[in-house]
Design goal:
Pfam families: MBOAT_2 (PF13813). By secondary structure, this protein is mostly helical. 70% of the residues lie in helices and 0% in strands. It has helices at 2-24, 33-48, 56-77, 91-99, 123-139, 148-178, 195-201, 205-223, 229-256, 263-284, 292-311, 313-317, 320-340. It is globular.
C-alpha cells in the first residue's frame, strides 16, 4: 500500500508541475494553434500518468481528473473557451478549475428551473449516505452467501454512493481552500423522471458540462450547416454520448489493462439513442407524459438493467469489483485500527 501512495504522490506532483507550466507559459501565448501546440505535450502526459497507478481507486480518480477533465478543459483553454477563461488570478484556482469537477456556485435567478440549479446536499442526507455505504461494506463480508442479483444491486448502489461522496469531499475541501461555494456534482439522480433529466440535470453534472462545451456544441454548430436544427441537436447528443463511452473505455483500460471490448461504449450509444428518441417524442406531444412515479421507475430500471448488462460487464468479468471492494475493506480496517489505538 505504501508503494501505491508513493506512486500517487509522484503522479500528482508531475500533474501540478505540468499545470503550472500551462498557467505561466502557455497562457502567455496567443490563443489558437500556437497555444494548442504548447498544451498538447501536457495532454499526452496526462494520458500516460495513470499507467503508473495500480490501485483501482487511485487510477479511476486520476483518469477522471487528469486524462478526462483536465485534458478537455485545457483544449478549450487553448482557444480561450471553457472554465479556464478568463485566466484565474491565482495558480491554485487554475489548478483546481483545470482538473477537478467543480464550478463556483452562482445565485440562481427567481425564474430559474430548480433542477438546473441543484441545492447543496443537506447534512442529514450526507450522513445517511455515509451510513449506507458503511453498511454496504459490512454486508460485502457475507456476499458469498447472497444471490448474485442482490450482490449486483449492492455494487451498483456502492458505485453511486462512493463516486458521489468522493466528489462531495473534493468539493468541500476546494470550497474551504478557495473560500467560495461549489456547485453540487450530483442532483439526486434516483429522482430522475426521464433519461434527459437523468443525464443532463442530475448525474455527474460537471462532466456533462465539459462534454457540452467540448463535444455537443461544436458538433451541433457543424451539423447546422447540413441538417435541420433538430437534426443538428440530435447529432450533438449522440456525439456527446459516444465520446463519453470512449472516455469510459479509456478508464476501464487503465483499471483492467486489457484491450477494450466496447461494451461500455455500446452502453452510452444506447443511452444516447434512447435519450434522443425520448426528446423527439416529447417534442411531437403525441403521448401524454406518464406519472412521475411511473417514469422514474422506468428510468431507474432501464439504467440499472443496461448498466449491469453493458456498463459493468468488463468490471465484473475481470473481477475489478472484487479488487475495489478489497481496497474499501482495507481502508475500513485501517480506520478501525486508527480509532481503537
Amino acid at each position: 500500500m505504501e508503494e501505491k501512495f508513493r506512486n500517487l504522490i509522484e503522479v500528482w506532483i508531475s500533474a501540478l508541475i505540468s499545470l503550472s507550466y500551462c498557467y505561466y507559459i502557455s497562457s502567455k501565448l496567443s490563443k489558437g494553434v500556437l497555444r494548442l501546440l504548447s498544451i498538447l505535450p501536457v495532454c499526452i502526459l496526462f494520458l500516460v500518468l495513470p499507467l503508473f497507478l495500480s490501485s483501482v481507486h487511485f487510477c479511476a480518480i486520476s483518469v477522471l481528473f487528469l486524462s478526462w477533465l483536465a485534458n478537455f478543459k485545457l483544449l478549450l483553454f487553448a482557444f480561450d473557451e471553457g472554465p479556464l477563461f478568463p485566466l484565474p488570478p491565482k495558480l491554485s484556482r487554475f489548478i483546481c478549475f483545470a482538473c477537478l469537477p467543480i464550478k463556483i456556485r452562482q445565485d440562481p435567478s427567481p425564474n430559474a428551473i430548480p433542477n438546473l440549479h441543484p441545492k447543496p446536499m443537506p447534512k442529514w442526507v450526507l450522513a445517511v449516505k455515509i451510513l449506507v455505504l458503511g453498511v454496504l461494506l459490512h454486508v460485502y463480508e457475507y456476499r458469498d452467501g447472497l444471490p448474485r442479483f442482490v450482490v449486483l444491486a449492492l455494487y451498483c448502489l456502492h458505485i453511486y454512493l462512493e463516486v458521489e461522496l468522493v466528489l462531495v469531499f473534493v468539493g468541500a475541501v476546494v470550497s474551504t481552500l478557495l473560500g467560495c461555494n461549489i456547485e453540487p456534482v450530483f442532483n439526486e439522480p434516483y429522482l430522475a423522471t426521464s433519461l434527459q433529466d437523468f443525464w443532463s440535470r442530475r448525474w455527474n453534472l460537471m462532466v456533462s458540462a465539459v462534454l457540452r462545451s467540448t463535444v455537443h456544441i461544436p458538433v451541433q454548430r457543424f451539423f447546422k450547416r447540413i441538417l435541420s436544427p433538430d437534426g443538428a441537436m440530435f447529432a450533438g447528443v449522440m456525439a456527446s454520448f459516444f465520446v463519453s463511452g470512449l472516455m469510459h473505455e479509456l478508464l476501464y483500460f487503465y483499471m483492467i489493462r486489457k484491450p477494450p471490448t466496447w461494451e461500455v461504449t455500446c452502453f452510452f450509444v444506447l443511452h444516447g439513442a434512447a435519450t434522443a428518441t425520448e426528446i423527439a417524442v416529447k417534442r411531437t406531444q403525441w403521448l401524454r407524459p406518464p406519472h412521475r412515479a411511473v417514469s422514474g421507475l422506468v428510468v431507474l430500471t432501464f439504467v440499472s438493467v443496461t448498466g449491469v448488462w453493458l456498463f459493468l460487464a468488463q468490471v465484473l468479468r475481470n473481477n475489478v469489483h472484487e479488487k475495489a471492494i478489497g481496497e474499501c475493506l482495507l481502508v475500513l480496517d485501517l480506520a478501525k485500527l486508527f480509532t481503537s489505538s
